Amino acid sequence: MTRPRPYGMAAEFDDAGALVRAVRKARAAGYRRFETYSPHPIEEIDQVMQHWDMIAPIGFVSALTGGVIGFYMQYFIAADVYPTNIGGRPLNSWQAFVVITFALTVLFGLIAVFGATVFFQGMPSLYHPLFKIPSFRRASSNGYFLCIESWDEQFQPIDTSRFLQSLYPINVWEVDYE
Amino acid sequence: MSELITIGENPVEASRRRFLELMGASIALATGAGCTRPPTEFVMPYVTPPEQAIPGVARYYATAAVTNGIAEGVIAETHLGRPTKIEGNPRHPASLGATSVLSQASILDLYDPFRAKEVTKNNETASWDQFTVELHAALEPIRKANGRGLSLLTETVVSPTLGWQLQRVLEQFPEARWHQYDPAGPHSSRKGSLNAFGRYVNTYYRLDQANVMLSLDSDFFTYGPASTRYAHDYAFGRKVRGSNTQMNRLYVAESTLTSTGGKADHRLQLKYSDIGRFGVELAAAIGVPGVAAVSSPRFERIIGPLSQDLLANRGRSAILVGENQPPALHALVHAMNAALGNAGHAVAYTEALETRPENQIESLKTLVAEMNAGTVKILLIINGNPAYNAPNDLGFSDALARVQTSIHFGLYHDETSQHTVWSLPASHFYESWSDARAFDGTVTILQPLIERLYDSRSEVELLDLLVEMPNRASRTIVRSYWQQQAGAYDFETWWRKAVGEGMIPASSLPESQPALQPIDVGSLLASDSGIELTFRANPYLYDGRYAGNAWLQELPRHITKLTWDNAIHVSARTAERHGLRHQQIARIKVGTQYVEGAVWLSPGQPDDSIMVEFGYGRSRAGPIGTGIGFDAYRIRTTTGLWHVPNIEVSNTGATYPLATTQMNKSQHGRDLVVSQPITTYQRDPRFAQKAHPQPSYNDTLYPHWEYPHYNWGMAIDLTACVNCQACVIACQAENNIPVVGKQQVLFNRWMHWLRVDVYYEGDWSEPSARFAPIPCMHCENAPCEVVCPVQATVHSSDGLNEMIYNRCVGTRFCSNNCPYKVRRFNFLLYADWFTDQLKMQRNPDVTVRSRGVIEKCTYCVQRIREAEIRAQMENRKIQANEVKTACQQVCPTAAIVFGNINDSASEVSRMKAEPLNYGMLTELNTRPHTTYLAELRNPNPAITNYAD
Amino acid sequence: MPIDEKERLQARIRRIGAGDVVLVRPGVTSESLTSHIAGVILQPNVPLFWLTMFGIGIIALCMFVIAVAILLDVGIGELGTNIPVGWAFPIANYVWWIEIAVGGSLLSSILHLTNQKWRNSINRIAEAVTLAGIMCASLYPVLHLGRAWIFYWTLPYPNTLTIQPNFRSPLIWDVFGIFTYAAASVLFWYLDMIPDLAAVRDRAENRIAYLIFGVLALGWQGSSKQWRMQEKGSLLLAGILTPLVFTVHTVVSFDFAIALVPGWHSTIFPPYFVDGAILAGISMVSMITIALRSAFSFENIITDQHLNNLGKIILTTSVFLFYIYCFDSFTNWYGGNPYEQYTDRFRVFGNYAWVFWTFVAFGIAAPQLLWWKRNRTDPRALFVISLLVVIGMWEERYMLMVVSLSHDFMPSAWANFAATAEDNALLYGSCGLFLAMVFLLVRLFPMVPLHSVRQLLPHAQNGGAIE
Predict the structure, then answer these.
(1) Whole-angstrom distance, CA of residue B551 vs CA of residue B106
(2) Peptide bond preceding C26: is omega within 30 degrees of 0, i.e. cis?
(3) Residue B86 forms beta bridges with which residues?
(4) Which residue among A86, A88, A89 places its CB closest to the CB of B791?
(5) Which of C251, C410, C416, C420 is the mutation pick for testing B, counting most B CBs within 10 A?
(6) Which of B207, B328, B608, C11 could make an S-S bridge to B233, C-beta 3.0–4.6 Å?
(7) CB-based contact B791 A82, cutoff 8 Å
(8) What pLDDT score was predicted for residue C93?
C-alpha cells in the first residue's frame, strides 16, 4: 500500500525572525510553493511572497454599480413608476437623490470589499490540513510556521524534511490531507 | 308605505340597515302596539322628491335648532336616515344659511349615548304606561279640585303649539299654576321693556341699517337668538372692496373682553357697575329727555365724540345692551334709541315672543313658596334643571322634597330628576314634531329627522297626556294647531310648503312703536368700590344644559381658548393685589356661600371685577359633563342674578391646571394677523401685501407645477371674522373629528382641523383683539409633503394638499415642518369606534381616523369630489361657487370663501384679487392657497387713543 | 530597510506625542496577551464588576421592553410629544446614540487610515460602543412612529399598492444612511476580528466554544496570504468607513437642516453634528475604556497615553462646538431673520434655558478642564468629564428638538413639552440596552484586537531586524 501523497511539510519556529530567515532560505533553495502561518502579519514575508488579488477593483466596480442602481431606483420610482407632485418639487429632484445614491455606492462597495477579502483569503474553509499539527494552535498566538506544499516541483518528502530541519525549527511535521 | 316596527329599547339594535328601511321621505315613522305609542307619522322632504333615495347621496330636510325656546332655521343633512350635519337655512331670518355654534353642536346632543332612555320612578325603571296610569290616578282628585295642587314649571315657552296646549291645560285645570324659569334668560330685558313701555315687548336690531353701533356690555356676536344674524349684518356693513371704503363703526363698553369687544373699533373697559353710569352720561349727552346732565372726567374723552357720532347718525345707529345689565339700563337704552330716532329703523319692536312673558324670578319664588307650603301636589317640570340652576337662596331642591308627585321631563336624568319621583325621557327636537319662533317671531315647524332613538316623548305629546286622554302623535297635535291658525282653504299645500321650506312665510310678528314712559336712572349712578362679581352664561354650555356635549366642552372659549373648565377671570392687577395666582384655586365668598375655582388671568378684565361663568360643576351630567369646573349657581341669588358687589376672594394655594388650546396670545411683532385703520387703506390699499410679499416663481430654480383645470383655494376676510367659532364646530361635525378630553388638551393634542387664533393687541390691561381662522393653507410648495417619507401627503392635480391616512406611518415630520402648525396627530385612539349612537352621527364620506396617523383640513375634499361627480354626470364643469366647505357654509359673516382660483367668476378669485389679500408667512415661499384679507378697523378720528 | 531607520520608525510607533508614555507596557508578550484576552472569554467565572454592570443593563433593558410593549399597545400618546413638539425624547435619543456610535467609527476608520497605532488596543472596545450605539439608535425611529408596525413602508420594495417611499424626505435618507452605516460597522468589526476569533478558537478547551469560535473564525489559519488580504481589506473598509463617519451624521443632520424650522434650517448643521458626534462618541468610548481597563486589568495595554489622546480629541471637539454655536448665533443675528433670532434668544433665556445652560456647562465648559494634562491622564477625572459631556450632549439634542419646535413661526401654536414616565423609561431603558450590549460584546468577543497589539510588541517587530 502506497502512502497517499501528503499536503506538505511544515516547520515550526518560535519567532518571526526565524520564520523570515526560513522563508528567504526556502526561496533561495528554489522552493516556490510554500506558505507561512503567523499570529500577525510580517512585512518582510509579504515582500517575498507575491499574492495576487482583485479586492480593490471588485469593490470599485461594485460601488459604481451601487451608485447607478441607487440613482436609477430613485429616478424610476419618483419620475416614472409613481410620479407625484410632492411639495411642488420636480419629479426628478436629483439634488435630493444624491444622498441615497451615495449611501448605496458605499453599501455596495463595502459589501463587495468584505466578500472579496474573505474570498481571496480562501475563507470560509473550516478545515485545513495544518490544523492536524498539534501545536498549530500556537499559530494564533506565538507560533510561526512554514509549510512547503507537496505540489512544489522540488518537493520530495525526505529532501524537504531535511531542508526544513536545516533551518533549526522547533519541530518538523509531515502534513497529511486527512 | 308600510308599517314598520319600532326600534327597540336597545339603541344598539338601531342598525344602519334599519335606518335605511326607516327613512327616506314618505317614511312611516314607526309605531307599535301599546296605548301610549304614537301612531304613524310622515316626514316631509325639503327639496328633492322622496321617491328614490339613493344610498350614498345625502338628503336634506328643513327644520330648526331650538335654543332656549327660540328657533334658528336649519337644514339637516341626512345619510340613509341618519342626520349627520346641520346647515343653516338660507331662507330663515335668524340663519341666512349660517348657524350658531349651538345649532351646529345640537346634532351631537341627539346622539348623546347618555341621554335619558327610559322612564324611571324613584330612580328605578318604569314605563310610560305605568306613568300614564299613575298620573291620571293622581290627577283625578286635582281635577275635582279645579286643578288646585297642579303646578307646571317650564322653561320660557315660545312655541305656539306648546303655548296653546298650556292654555288648554289651564282651561281644564283653572286653579293650576304654570311657572317659567330660565336661569340665563332675558330677565333684564323683560323688566326693562316693562319699565320703558309699561308692557312686555320684544326688541331686536337690524344692524345692516346702522352706521354706528354701541354695545353696552352686550356680546351680541355670541349670545342671544339672533347672534348669527347680528354678526351677518354687522360684517356686511363693513366689507371694504376696491374703492368702496364705507364701514360701519362699533363702540363697545364691556365688563370683560368678548369677541364683540375684540372686534370693536373702540373698546371701553369698565366695571359692570360703571357701565350704567356711562350709559347715563351718554344719554345726557345725546339729550334723552328726563336725564339730567351728569358728567365725570373719566368718560369725558369718549362721550363727546361718541355722542356726536351717534347724533350725526340719527336713525342710522343702534345701541345694544347686554342681558346681564340691570333693567334700568335696558329702559335707558330704549329711551336713547328713541331719542336717536332709531326705533323702526335699526331697532325694531314687536309683541313679546313668549306665550306668557312674566317676571320669571318672581314666578319661581312663588312656586317655591307654594311647594314649601305643601300646596303643590303634582309638580311637572318640563325641561329645565332647576335643582341645579335655580338661585341658591330659594332652596329649590329642599322644596322639591315636599311635593307628593314630582315629575321631571327632560333629555337627561339630571340633578333635578334625582330629586323627583318620576323622570321621563324627552325626545330631542330632531326626533319629534314641534314648532318654534325665531327672534323676530318667524315660525318654523320642526320635523323629525330620525326615528326616536329611545322610548321618549316630546313636550307636546307630554302635555297632550294631561289634556286628551287618548294621546296623539306629535305630528297630529302640531298639525291640528296650525290647521286652526292657518285657516287656509288648501291646508295640505300650506303645510307641505311650511314644513318643506322650514318656515311659515310672513309669520314674523308685526312691528310696533310702543310709547315711552318716563324712566328713572338713579339706580344706575351708584358705583361700588370693592371687588364685584359678574356672572355670564357660558357661551357654549349656556346655563349648563349642554355640559354633556363633548364638542362644546372641547370647543375653545372665544378669548381665553379654555376648554373643559370654567375659571375665575381676574385682571393681572387685581390678582396681584389679592394674592391670586394663575391656575391656582381661589375661593369666592358671597354671603355664607362660597365656590372654589381656578384663577385665569384675563387681559381685558377690568380691575376689581371678577367674572365667572355658569354651566359647570354639574353633578349629574353623564360621564362627559359631570364634575367639570365649579358650580357658580351656588353663589347666585335672586338679588344677585348677574352682579354681586363687594365680595370676598382669597387664594387657597392649591394649583389646578386649566387646559387651553392657545398658550401664547402675543404676536411677538410678527404681524401675521394684519390689522390697520381704514385710513391706512385709503392711503395705500396694498399695505398687507407689502408687509407679506409673495416671492415670484422666478425666485427659485425649480420649474413650477401647473394647475390648469381646477385650482382650489380659500380667502378669509379678517374684517368679517367675529370669532364665533361656528366654523370650528362645523368642521368637527363634517369631518368626524374626535374630541380628546382635558388631559390630552393639556398635552396640546387637541384635534380641531380649523382653529381661530386670538391675539391681544395694545396695552394688555386694556387690549383689543385680533382673530384669524387658521385652516390648512394648502401650500403649493408644501413643506410637509417634501419631508414625508412614505408619500402619505402629496399634492393633487387640482391644487390640494392631500393627506392619505392609510399610508401614514406617523413620523410627525410633516407637522414639525408645517410653519402654520395645522396638522393634528392621533397620539392615541381618539375616535370613538365603539359607541353605536356616535357611529350614526359620522359623515359616511369621511374616514374615521385610527391611532397613529396625522390628519388635517382637506378643504372638505369629500364635497369637492361630490361636486365633481355631479358635474361629470351632468357633463359640465363645476360652477363658480358650487362647492362650499363646511366652515364656509356655516360662517355667518361670509368671512370664509372657497372656490376655484382659476375661475375668474368665482367669489374666491375676486377676493384674492382684492388689494387687501395677503398670505401668511409667504416669505417662506410656501405659496399658501389659503390667503387672508387684512383686517380693517374704522376708529373715530376724533378719539385719539385708538390702540394701533 | 536599514536598521537605524527601522528602529527610529519603531520608536516613533511606540511613542506617540509625549515620548515617555508607552502604548504597551514592558513585559507584555504575545502569549500573555492572548491568554489574558482569550481568558476573559473562555473562563467560566466572571468578575463581579462585569456581572454588576451587565445586571444593571439587563434590569434597565427589562424596563425598556415593558415600556416598548406599553408604547405599542397604547400608542405613542404615552410619550410627551405633542403638536407642535412632534419630536422630543425618541429623536433626541436617536441622534444621541448615533453620535455615540460615531466615536467608535472614528477610531476604526480615520485613525486606522492615518496609521495612529495607539488606537489598536482600544479599537475593539470602541467598535463595541459603535455597534451597541447603532442598535439603540436604530430602535427609536421605529418606536417613535405612530404606527410602528408598518415601519417597512419606508423601504422601496415591490408591493401591490405600487406606492413607494418619497426619496426627497430626509427620513428616507436616514433609512439608507443608517443601514449602510450599520452594515459597514458590523462588517469592519467582524473582518478585523477574524484572526482574534481564531486565537480564541485555538485556546478553547471546551468543545462547544471550540466549535462556535471555529465557525466564527471561518477557518482562519494566519497564512501570509490571509494576512495580506486582511490588511488590504481592512484598509479599504476603513477607507469606505471614513466618509461614512462624516456622512452618517451629516445625513442625520439633514433631518433638521432640510426642515424650515427656525433653529434647524442651517447649513452649518452637517459639520456641527459631526463634531458633536465625535465629542459625544469619544467621551463614551473613554468611559467604557476606563471602566473595562480597571475591571479587567488592562493597564498594561491601555495606558495613560490612550487616555491622554482621547482627552485631546474631546477637548478639540468641544472647543470647535463652542465656535459653531458662536458662529450660528452670529449668522442669525447678521442674517436678520426674526424667527431665527427669536429661537436663539429663546434658547438662551426662554423656558428651556436650563437645558441650554446645562449643555454649556457639561458639554463645553467641563471639557475645558482637559487643557491640563493631569486631567487627561487621570482615569477618574477623564471618566467624570466624559460622563458630563455625554449627559450634556443629550441635553443639547433635547434642546435642539424642543426649543426649536415649541416656539416656531406661529405664536398661536406655541406650546411646551413635558416628558412622561414613558419617555424616561425609554431613555434609561436604552441605556440599559447599551450597557448590556457593550458588556456582552466584550465578554463574548476578544475585546482587544490581539493581532494589532501584537504588532506593537517588541519581539514581533524584530522579525526583520534580526539580520
Answers:
(1) 10
(2) no
(3) B76
(4) A86
(5) C410
(6) B207
(7) yes
(8) 93
The DSSP bridge partners found for residue B465 are none
**Could you tell me if B880 and B900 are in contact, meaning their C-beta atoms sit under 8 angstroms apart?**
yes
Closest by Cα among A5, A12, A3 to A130: A12
Which uninterrupted H or E stretch holds B405?
Answer: strand B405-410
How far C187 CA sits from the closest chain B CA (Å)?
28
Give chain C's length. 467
Residue B433 cell numbers, joined: 314634531
Of how many residues is chain B composed? 948
What is the Cα–Cα distance from A45 to B390, expressed in whole angstroms? 105
> What CATH number has the domain bearing residue C371?
1.20.1630.10
- Residue range B190-245, pLDDT digits in tens: 999 998 898 899 999 999 999 999 999 999 999 888 999 999 999 998 988 878 88
Domain count of the fold of chain C: 1
C-alpha distance from A4 to closest chain C C-alpha (Å): 23
Give B791's contacts (C-beta < 8 A, 6+ positions apart).
A82, A84, A86, B804, B807, C163, C164, C165, C166
Domains detected in chain B: 11-116+427-486 (3.30.200.210), 120-185+356-425 (3.40.50.740), 201-351 (3.40.228.10), 528-660 (2.40.40.20), 675-937 (3.30.70.20)
The candidate with the shortest Cα–Cα distance to C164, out of A80, B785, B791, A73, is B791
Tell me what ipTM this predicted complex has. Answer: 0.88
The beta-carbon neighbor of C75 closest among B786, B820, B828 is B828
Mean pLDDT along residues B442-459: 87
Residues of A with a Cβ under 8 Å from any B Cβ are: 82, 84-90
CA distance B606 to B258: 12
The residues pairing with B153 across neighbouring beta strands, listed in sequence order, are: B179, B381
Provide the domain limits for residue C261. Answer: 46-184+222-448
Q: Is A86 on the interface with C (CB under 8 A)?
A: yes
Candidates B782, B796, B797; nearest CB to A87:
B782
Nearest to B634 by CA among B313, B870, B437, B388: B388
Q: How many angstroms separate the CA of residue A87 from the nearest CA in chain C? A: 10
Is pLDDT of A18 > 60? yes
Mean pLDDT to the nearest integer, C396-412? 91
Q: Do B669 and C338 make contact, defined as CB atoms within 8 angstroms?
A: yes
- Using a CB–CB cutoff of 8 Å, tell me whether A52 touches chain C: no
Residue spans of alpha helices (H) in C204-336 = 207-216, 224-257, 269-295, 304-335
Q: Which of A77, A86, A100 to mutate to test the interface with B (most CBs of B within 10 A)?
A: A86
Residues of C in contact with B927 (CB under 8 A): none
Q: What share of chain C is helix, strand, coil (3-state, %, to 5)?
A: 75, 0, 25
* Contacts with B819 from chain C: Cβ below 8 Å: 260, 408-410
For the cut 80, the answer to whether the pLDDT of residue B331 exceeds it is yes
DSSP string, C429-440: HHHHHHHHHHHH
**CB-CB neighbors (< 8 A) of C166 in chain A:** 78, 84, 86
Q: Is B665 close to C412, i.e. CB distance below 8 A?
A: yes
Residues of chain C with Cβ-Cβ distance to A92 below 8 Å are: none
Among B782, C232, C408, CA closest to A51: C232
CB-CB contact of B75 with B87 (8 Å): yes
The answer to whether C44 and C326 are in contact (CB under 8 A) is no
Report, in angstroms and rounded to the nearest whole number, the Rg of chain C calculated over CA atoms: 23
CB contacts of B857 in chain C (<8 Å) are none
CB pairs under 8 A between A and B: 36
Q: Which of B712, B706, B710, B713 has its CA nearest to residue B877?
A: B710
Whole-number Å distance between alpha carbons of B611 and B564: 17
Rg of chain B (C-alpha set): 28
